Amino acid sequence: MSETPPPARSSSTDVPVSGGALGNEVPEEAHLLDELEGIGASRSFGRQTWDRFRRHHLAVAAAVLLVLLTIAFILGPILSPYGFADQDFTALNQGPNVAHPFGTDTIGRDILVRTFQGGRFSLRIALFVSLLTTAIGTLVGAVSGYFGGLLDTLLNQVINLFLIVPTLVILLVVGVRYGATPNGIALMLALLLWPAIARIVRGLFLQYKEQEFVLAAKAAGARAPRIMFRHILPNTFGPIVVNATLLVGVAIILESTLSFLSVGVQDPTPTLGNLIEKAKGQIDTKPSAVLIPGGFIVAITLCVNFLGDGLRDALDPTARKS
Amino acid sequence: MRLLTSTRPGRGALIVSPSGADGEWAPLFAYVARRVLTTIPLLLIGTFLVFWLTAISGDPLARLAQLDVDQAAYDRIIELYSLDEPIPQRYGNWLVDAVQGDMGPSPSQGNQQTFDLVWQRAKNTARLAVPAFIFIAITAVTLGVYSAVNQYSKLDYAVTGFSFLGISLPTFVFGLLLQVVFGIWFFDWFGVRPFFTQGMRTVASDGWLDMIRAHVLPIITLWLVITAAESRFQRAAMLEVINSDYIRTARAKGLPRRTVILKHGLRNALIPLVTIWAIDFALLLGGAVVTETIFAWPGLGRLLLDGIFQQDLNLTMGVVVFIAALVVFFNLVADLLYGVLDPRIRYE
Q1: How close, in Å, is residue B23 to chain A by CA atoms?
Q2: Other C-beta atoms within 10 Å of B188: how many?
Q3: Which is more confident, B51 or A100?
């Protein structure tokens, strides 16, 4: 996660997805003019961020695609004539056809609507995981970085512990019983993923707490919580947002992996992972039932990773060392 | 005291000191001993955590209920596995046996000794893990160094794209894709199956060619995801090194480009990667749950899943202890390798 691809000037030439189709295409010279204007007039943080972000065409395209996918996942089940748990015993185990564009499963459920509903559940789980993990990780990291001492030692030991006992092992052990519902699995993932965020936030707090503005705040009589959350935390906004974004991808992959191992969310609730788990036995005769949800997973994670990369450029320009 | 975590050399338990005589082995042994000793509390907490979570996550008597057995059978099972005792006490019993080398029998595997089962499956896993790791190490370093040296070239973009794809592609999707392509489509198009997609059934009976055909797809599956992450990491490390002053000095005094990149650059850029290698290799040897499930490979990952699904506490604990031991061991190896790569690092 440390290194990111080169700046966006590349993406418009090498990659067919250009900003032109999205109405964001600005010629190179225009960037220069923007830059020159920016020297005299001051631009807000939000404006600067947006200007940097939109030049990363791939990230913009990824964001647009993610929004489209989300809309499709929400509208699909509403517009579909079938419910995601409805069984039609006259249409068992069909391949793709006109009435069921993605086919039906072994008990006659429409795979199209199950895929979209599954995408909706998967995305919901991932967003929940990302928010909760970021909240816990930020809090622990902030306190541990600012105060140090016992809590800091404890955090380090927890990180070491998760290295010795890999996350997947704990997820498998606990998931058998507690991972069967979307909220249960989201909670489980969040409780295991927070140390990574805590470590990043801790590092940032260690770095900022020595700076003059913190000393100034202390001299003005501010107490620790105010210094931590009003003075230091806003500075860590960039890296936290970037990592929260990347966490969505991590959560989708982990959730679907657990479902694939039949530990995660259980039937009839669909997620992209358990759709694949159900279909993998028939991979010889009906590969589409595996490849379609798989394609959605890859599309989402790829978009999330490109988006995270673009956000890193925009929010955290100093992170790119080279 | 930090242990095991040092993702960067020079942090944590390693002490860099410019002085210190060569060839003194005593500090090294003391260092190793201290590292192993300080890991013990973590191992205890980790194994207890897994024991406790396994014990509360399932009901080992649930399967008996389906079998319609009498009360005596229940009592016998409860007695046999001390299910009426509190979990800490059961953990204590397990621990006392375990430190004496007795990992107990595994009820779900016909009461075979857990230790024998783990060892036998570990060998199957190693057949995938060792070649996969060798390919990963070679390709990750090559791609990382090449794209860092030729930053912003076409190849650099290709490597970056490959990394993004590999990171975004879940192992099970990639593995299933390989199965579809080589198991189904390739056969439809050309009428042959170049690789086996299910298990190692032919390994014993047929020749070396069939053995290779059985290993190729699972190894590629393991290779992609890890290589994608590692090559990105290696590229970052290499970029940091080749933009540093001493590399400019080496170039300025007219050393051949190859020497500068490989001897001055790569040797230093390898240090951060060694930590990643230690973790990845330990986890590879600890069993690839997903890959082994897809390719029906009788390795440690499948054994772990069996233990968890069958509520087999001894078996689950056996695999977990094995993985933990691997992680501890290879992290130690990585720390010692720093000393080889960077002679300034001393173990005190």
Answers
A1: 31
A2: 7
A3: B51
pLDDT of A196 > 60? The answer is yes
Q: How many CB atoms lie within 10 A of CB A241?
A: 18
- Looking at residue B137, what is its pLDDT? 94
H runs (alpha helix) in B199-312: 208-242, 245-252, 257-259, 267-285, 289-294, 300-309
With an 8 Å Cβ cutoff, is B2 touching chain A?
yes
Where b means 16+ CB within 10 Å and e means fewer, B304-321 reads: bbbbbbbbbbbbbbbbbb
Q: Which residue of A has its CA nearest to B188?
A: A284
The percentage of chain A sitting over the pLDDT mark of 70, rounded to a whole number, equals 85
Q: How far apart are CA B202 and CA B214, in angstroms?
A: 7
pTM value is 0.81
Residue A79 in contact with partner chain B when CB distance is under 8 A:
no
Q: Which residues of chain B have pLDDT under 70?
A: 1-24, 63-64, 199-206, 346-348
CA A267 to chain centre: 24
* C-beta separation of B267 from B303 below 8 A: no
Q: Which residue has the tokens 């986890």?
A: B283
| B225 vs B162: CA distance, rounded Å | 10
Peptide bond preceding A239 in cis form (omega within 30 of 0): no
Q: Is B23 helix (H, G, I), strand (E, B) or coil?
A: coil
